[in-house]
Amino acid sequence: MTDANSSGWDDTVLPFQLDNSDIRGRIARLDTALGGILEQHDYPPQVEALVAEMALLTALIGQTMKLRWKLQLQVQSDGPVRMIATDYYGPSEDGAPARIRAYASYDADRLTEGAPIDQVGKGYFAVMIDQGKGTTPYQGISPLVAESLSKSAEGYFAQSEQLPTRFELSFGKSTTADAAEHWRAGGVMLQHMPKASPFVAQDEGTGETLQPVDLLDDDETENWNRVNILLDTVDDLELIGPVLAPSDVLLRLFHEERPRVFDKQRVHFGCSCSEDRVRQSLSIYSARDIETMTTDDGRVTADCQFCGAHYDLDPASVGFEAEKDA
């Protein structure tokens, strides 16, 4: 068994390929990165669980992002949890960590004692990919699925990308004897090898959620079903670790499929907010508009929903009229 301590495998995504079945995948574990996301807010337990699930989905999907690309996932619903938004920023350079952040908007008085997914109503699951300056961002949406957010993500890939996809996730509070209680998450993503780029825009469809097997021929369906049956045998401790290394989990699950692993990607909690970005967002407003935003204390303030950073600005220094005077 590989020596798998938390410093080596936590907050990483390990891509792999199953050569015998033409399937690729990723296995991820989040610890400190997930804690950094959740400790910015005092979410109720149901909301924490939903944010943890979305953060894990974002890490698994985002690993394919190239340098400096940005992936955004978003859930919009008419339920008590109105929105969950996550961002994944590709590494700034080879070998650097990716950054991830997330937050949720919810109506506290509408939350129920039901399961976390019961707090999400009807709505949509959206994916946006920004490749940087000079490019047009790609966006796709699909309906939310009542079972889980991961099932909604599977539906998105089947409908909008024509890619059979499977997620197996585990997340919750760790209660190990030698550490304070904290959130951990781990999961596996399987995806049939694409016949084109995984993020080529496709028609958005009629709203009917496709199943992965709807996209495969007979031989591909046999491979897909066999690998999914193997994934069904994974347990929560294997997913969240840290006793067993992800490479050992893959070997235990898929040794007959000839698993091949690639370089792991580190993931850190990180926010892109800054005073300059706040000033830029306010630069479209006139002095009269800025006056309506000014507090009784004579300041313009802004709070980052992702990390809680607070910005306190002189109203005379923001807005397009202020820029002209600068």
Number-wise, the strands total: 13
Counting helices, strands and paired strands, the structural category is alpha+beta
- Estimate the mean pLDDT confidence: 85
- Helix tally equals 10
Please write the string of helix (H) and strand (E) elements.
HEEHHEEEEEHEEHHHEEHHEEH
Largest sheet: 11 strands, mixed
Strand content: 25-35%
Poorly predicted sequence stretches spanning 5 or more consecutive residues: 1-6, 196-210
Please give the share of residues in helix. Answer: 25-40%
Shape: globular
Calculate the terminal CA-CA distance, rounded to whole Å: 63 Å
Cα gyration radius (Å): 21 Å
What does this 3D model show about the protein?
With 326 residues, this protein is of the alpha+beta class. It contains ten helices and 13 strands. It has helices spanning 6-9, 32-38, 45-62, 149-160, 218-231, 236-240, 246-254, 275-282, 287-293, 320-325; strands at residues 12-18, 23-30, 70-77, 81-89, 98-106, 123-130, 138-143, 165-174, 182-192, 259-261, 265-269, 300-303, 310-313. The strands form two sheets. Strands 1, 2, 3, 4, 5, 6, 7, 8, 9, 10 and 11 form an eleven-stranded mixed beta sheet that branches. Strand 3 (70-77) and strand 4 (81-89) form a beta hairpin. It is globular.
